[in-house]
Amino acid sequence: MTDAYAAARTLVLLRHSKAEQPKEGPDADRPLTTRGRADAESAGAWLAKHGLLPDVVLCSTARRTRETWHGVAMGMTGSPPEGGSAGPRPDVRYEADAYEAHPDDLLALVRRVDPAAGTVLLIAHNPGISLLSALLDAGGAPEELRTTELAVHRSPGPWVELDRGRAQLTDRYTARS
After folding, report:
1. Residue 80: what pLDDT?
2. What is the C-alpha separation between 24 and 145, in angstroms, rounded?
3. Which pLDDT does position 87 carry in this prediction?
4. What distance in Å separates the CA atoms of residue 93 and residue 53, rounded to the nearest whole number?
5. Dist CA 104 CA 106 (whole Å)
6. Predicted local confidence at residue 77, as pLDDT
7. Which residue, 61, 92, 125, 130, has fewest beta-carbon neighbours within 10 Å?
8. In the chain, what's the furthest Cα-to-Cα distance?
């Protein structure tokens, strides 16, 4: 194992931003509110300020999570994630399995990340995302992540070995505009 693979890993969990209340149509199609879009950009700016730019983004396929990622990317770089030359170029994976996922399913997604990736951002939904945070650090994780709340976990080993109680919660941020 090389030094690059032996380095600590950072997993940033993000509950999607505030979405419109359910109306007609599928739950997965709910867009963000104006506040939700602003909060997503604020979360991205916080990540950039703290040097937590992701190498990999795992994002639920629901509209509100995709829009949250777009806002986070804008906040990190000041430009849309698919255009411009400024900022990070993470490997973004839209994962259908992250929608309404059990924490073990979310953990399985993270375990499949390229071992060279140092920082992963997972954008998903409650209750799964909050339960995953508690599973990784039962003593430090919040009971429930609020909308646009980031939970930063650090793990000493490779992604494939990430497991219960193996990723200490080291920081939190909740955006509120």
Report:
1. 54
2. 26
3. 52
4. 15
5. 5
6. 87
7. 61
8. 52
Give the count of alpha carbons within 13 A of 39, CB side only: 24
Burial class (CB in 10 A: 0-12, 13-18, 19+), 177: middle
What's the pLDDT score for residue 140? 76
Which value, to the nearest 10 degrees, does the dihedral of the CA atoms of residues 174, 40, 52, 139 take? 30
Token pair recorded at residue 105: 């399913």
Query: Tokens at residue 111, please?
Result: 């375990």
* Distance, CA of 39 to chain centre: 14
Q: Rounded to an integer, what distance in angstroms lies between the CA atom of residue 16 and that of residue 27? A: 14
| Cα–Cα distance, 33 to 21 (Å, whole number) | 9
Confirm if 4 and 158 have CB atoms less than 8 A apart.
no
Place of tokens 């497991």: 163
Give per-10-residue mean pLDDT for the chain (177 aa).
Answer: 61 97 86 97 97 97 97 84 58 96 97 97 97 90 89 95 94 86
Q: What pLDDT score does 106 carry?
A: 98
